[in-house]
């Protein structure tokens, strides 16, 4: 386990680093993204620029004011984008590429399943479009996505890679989630092979005491058992057993900069244990699958079954077929 004291001690060194940090956040106005964004603003007090992708940038002025309060020198730029539309993601990524020469880190969520666009396609496109800027960075560039690392399913349905069947059937919710996590890890491993200098992190955050449950389903007044559970049962459980928002944010910053992932980055005061990447013998920085305590989680048995030429080729081919219009 990476203790919270180690996380804090490592993050405390960021304020003394003069190397510029340029980051991009998808969904940085609520939940884990917001907690990490605020922690980053507090810790990286110099040479920090952050692009934040949100549907309605104007409505997030209070968050912008809070960011400027904790970090007067930072640049925080909201870019309007509906992450459910791949064409919007392309548009805002092009804006970033016009303005920036390099990118240090990114953190993420058209006839396609809305669920699957939000869970996988948008993240894959976001990462693919910004790869040139990540490769240009000299500061241990990283891509972080928050899902359920370690839950990959060896029985991935290769005839339903767009997950339309699984996503449309509430009885298959867990299968759908496992499919998304499997696709994410396999596609990250594919990208890591061609981009050995970039760290890819897939993390399972556990229960987090953020504002995400408080705001869930507020936009709709319709009633359902699932909605009732999320509004009235889940929040008390998270409050009793979840990780505090402050810790969530600190751990989010830690995995963006800690040297335990890939060997580059900020060392803790006593050094950081090097975590295993997802694939044994991988040459390069690679993919790191992390538990909520930021230790690596292994799922080698499931992944090894999928790494044969057939499944990986199908995943890459399907992903590139969907994304090619926007690349």
Automatic annotation (TrEMBL):
InterPro entries (UniProt xref): NAD(P)-bd_dom_sf (IPR036291), Sec_Metab_Biosynth_Oxidored (IPR052228)
Keywords per UniProt: Oxidoreductase
An annotated Gene Ontology molecular function: oxidoreductase activity
Descriptive protein name: NAD(P)-binding protein
Provenance organism: Clohesyomyces aquaticus
């Amino acid at each position: 386990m990476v203790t919270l004291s180690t996380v804090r001690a490592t993050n405390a060194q960021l304020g003394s680093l003069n190397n510029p940090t340029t980051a991009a956040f998808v969904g940085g106005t609520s939940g884990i993204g917001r907690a990490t964004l605020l922690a980053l603003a507090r810790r990286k007090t110099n040479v920090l620029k952050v692009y934040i992708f949100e549907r309605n940038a104007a409505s997030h002025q209070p968050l912008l004011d809070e960011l400027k309060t904790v970090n007067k020198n930072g640049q925080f730029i909201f870019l309007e984008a509906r992450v459910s539309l791949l064409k919007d993601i392309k548009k805002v990524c092009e804006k970033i590429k016009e303005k920036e020469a390099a990118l240090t880190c990114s953190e993420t969520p058209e006839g396609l399943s809305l669920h699957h666009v939000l869970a996988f396609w948008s993240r894959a496109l976001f990462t693919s479009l910004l790869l040139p800027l990540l490769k240009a960075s000299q500061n241990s560039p990283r891509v972080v996505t928050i899902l359920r690392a370690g839950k990959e399913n060896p029985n991935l349905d290769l005839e339903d890679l767009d997950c339309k069947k699984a996503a449309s059937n509430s009885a298959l919710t867990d299968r759908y989630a496992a499919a998304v996590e499997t696709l994410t890890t396999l596609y990250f491993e594919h990208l890591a092979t061609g981009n050995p200098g970039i760290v890819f992190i897939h993390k399972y955050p556990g229960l987090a005491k953020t504002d995400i449950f408080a705001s869930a389903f507020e936009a709709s007044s319709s009633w359902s058992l699932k909605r009732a559970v999320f509004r009235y049962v889940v929040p008390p459980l998270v409050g009793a057993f979840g990780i505090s928002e402050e810790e969530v944010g600190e751990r989010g910053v830690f995995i963006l900069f800690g040297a335990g992932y890939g060997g580059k980055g900020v060392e803790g005061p006593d050094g950081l244990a090097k975590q295993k990447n997802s694939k044994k013998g991988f040459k390069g920085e690679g993919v790191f699958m992390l538990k909520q305590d930021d230790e690596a989680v292994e799922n080698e048995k499931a992944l090894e079954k999928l790494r044969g030429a057939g499944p990986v080729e199908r995943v890459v081919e399907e992903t590139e077929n969907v994304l090619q219009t926007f690349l």
